[in-house]
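Example 3.2
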Amino acid sequence: MEIKTVSQCTLEETLKTWNKGFEGYFVQIEMNEEMFLNRLVGEGLSPELSIVAFEHNNPVGIVLNGIRQIDGKKTSWNGGTGISPDYRGKGISRALMEETIAIYERENVEIATLEAIKENKVAIALYEKYGYTITNQLLFLSGEFAPKIEEQNAIHAETIRPEQLPYLSFYQEDVPWQCSWQSNKQGEAKVFFNMNNEAIGYMLYRIVFDTDGTIDHIVLYQLELLEKGTVDYIPHFIASITNHKVKLATVNFPLSNPATSYLMEHGLVVQTEQVQMKKTMA
């Protein structure tokens, strides 16, 4: 078996390995060239740090990797490990994991992170073997939400760019990789204040428009309530985008987040469950 970096492979080889590697997977994530390249760039995945395994010149497995500074620590993310169906259970995933860990060590990574589908016990066991532990339960939710305002609270919103979020003293930078401001520079962000001009929460989101220019749905990447905020403010947060009933979807919302429970109690249902896993590097 030979392992190459994605930068040493053709786009055709890499895309073929990705799509084959997730064939029959828990969630369908087949991509075309444009989608794949957009994901690499948008999520900060590195062709030099990502790897492809070859067996007899045939690409059979892949790991996509990225590295960022998060909370002052050099943090890596495994953005997907896929093995071709005919080669599963033959040691390819272990070889890819060992090479990935070696890459992290060479790059002086301090915290290694990834997410795994909750039902994928085989993958979770593999990651645990290499020192990862489960740190959070994550939910993809979707459904219709009606931002009913029972009483008018004197709150106001300030719209900012996602890149401005890390400069806020109360911003929580340690979030799942795909929910970070770095992965959502094309999105929007809002900070909410009460009548005393105290920050009560913030949102990072993306609006998806229909062909006629109306809102089709809103994707929520972060919805955080601060000390002065409560879940009762959530309708006001959504109403700052639209006063109409709207389809919402969340990406990797922690089960421990009060906003997650609130949205589930008000029309959203679980589509996919993941576990977040982390490894403290030596």
